[in-house]
Amino acid sequence: MAGKKLETIRSSRAWEVARTQHGVVSRRNLLELGFTSSAIEHRLRTGRLRPLAQGVYVVGWPQSDRRQQWMAAVLACGETACLSHRSAAALWRITKDASGPIDVTVRRHTDLHRPALRIRVRCGLPRADVTVLDGIPITTPARTLLDLATVLDAKALERAVNEADKHDRIDPEALRAKLDTYVGQPGVRRLRTLLDRLTFRLSDTELEVLFRPIAAKVGLPTPLAKEIVNGFEVDFYWPQLGLVVETDGWRYHRTASAQTRDALRDQTHTASGLTTLRFSHCQVAHEPGHVLQILARTTANLQRG
Q1: Which domains does the chain possess?
Q2: DSSP reduced 3-state for 61
Q3: How far is residue 137 CA from its own chain's centroid?
Q4: b vs e for 161-185, b when ≥16 Cβ sit within 10 Å of the residue's Cβ?
Q5: I want to staple 206 with a disulfide (CB 3.0 to 4.6 A). Which of 14, 194, 202, 253 is the partner?
Q6: Among 67-81, 188-202, 261-275, 279-293, whose mean pLDDT is lowest?
Q7: Nearest partner of 236 among 267, 274, 199, 272, judged by Cα
């Protein structure tokens, strides 16, 4: 009777562990709970445990849940393992693509190989760069973005930085500061270059110096600058055309209140019959040809109208 009670307690504890790990337990978990190898084999034969990966089992039936697969991948690689790179980005909702091999980083020397896993050995990965999300060990958002900088193209990396900001994982300013602790590591230079472009901002004087010649090439007269229109201060305004040009120092404003204010401003201008164009400071400084083309086409349409 006592043996049966002990077995029930062990099974209950195993289920509790599995519940916190998306229904998954490792052989190491079970051995630590007091299960013998024969007890584990018995449960496998009777279907109470089902193999999900080498040394990893699901309690009951496997689910078609990506988190369960990520949890199993980490458990299969040992206690120093964590989700990283593209897989970590997907769990953080920094990227949407979770296809392909699961990326796992192991912070110890090993020649471990597992089917459908992309295992990276990084003994020097600081413990501070690993956290837990939804019960799954995972690289921090900053480290994940640094890792992505070594595997993604420029556009995909920019989207990832924007998504991390949008979902409040880490904003560009905090990420830029964090890069100071990663000096010399792969990906740092690419992220610094990208962040400089995303957060690039001209002074009002510099902006006017660069933008006015573009407008002049289009054939526009000197615009009114910092004029109050419909109760809002605008960057450049041509009342004879009903044209407003706004410039943003960031790819988008992160706070909900700023987004709401921008939307309200544009809606108010549109409702009053004005046309609003938005350019980033980076576009004005580094992509003047694009700014000129859009401004010229818009001006032509307004003049015909």
Answers
A1: 10-150 (no CATH), 204-304 (3.40.960.10)
A2: coil
A3: 17
A4: bbbbbeeebbebeebbebbeebeee
A5: 202
A6: 188-202
A7: 274
The full DSSP string for 223-285 is PEEEEEETTEEEEEEETTTTEEEEEESSSS--SHHHHHHHHHHHHHHHHTT-EEEEEEHHHHH
What is the strand order of the sheet 275-280 is part of?
A: 224-229, 232-238, 243-248, 275-280
Q: Which two tokens stand for residue 62?
A: 């496997």
For 86-104, what is each residue's pLDDT tens digit? 999 999 999 987 778 999 9
pLDDT digits (tens, 9 = 90+) for 208-231: 899 999 999 999 999 999 999 999
- The residue behind tokens 């079970």 is 30
Edge-first strand listing for the sheet containing 102-106: 117-121, 102-106, 81-83, 136-139, 130-133
Enumerate the β-bridge partners of residue 243. Answer: 238, 275
Output the six-digit token pair for 205.
């004087």
Long-range contacts (CB closer than 8 Å, 24 or more residues apart) made by 118-126: 118/85, 119/77, 120/84, 120/85
How far apart are the C-alpha atoms of 287 and 279, rounded to whole Å? Answer: 10
R_g (Cα) of the chain, nearest Å:
28
Q: Is 94 left (phi over 0), alpha (psi -120 to 50) or beta?
A: alpha
Nearest alpha carbon to residue 252 among 177, 131, 163: 163
Here the tokens at position 276 are 């609003």
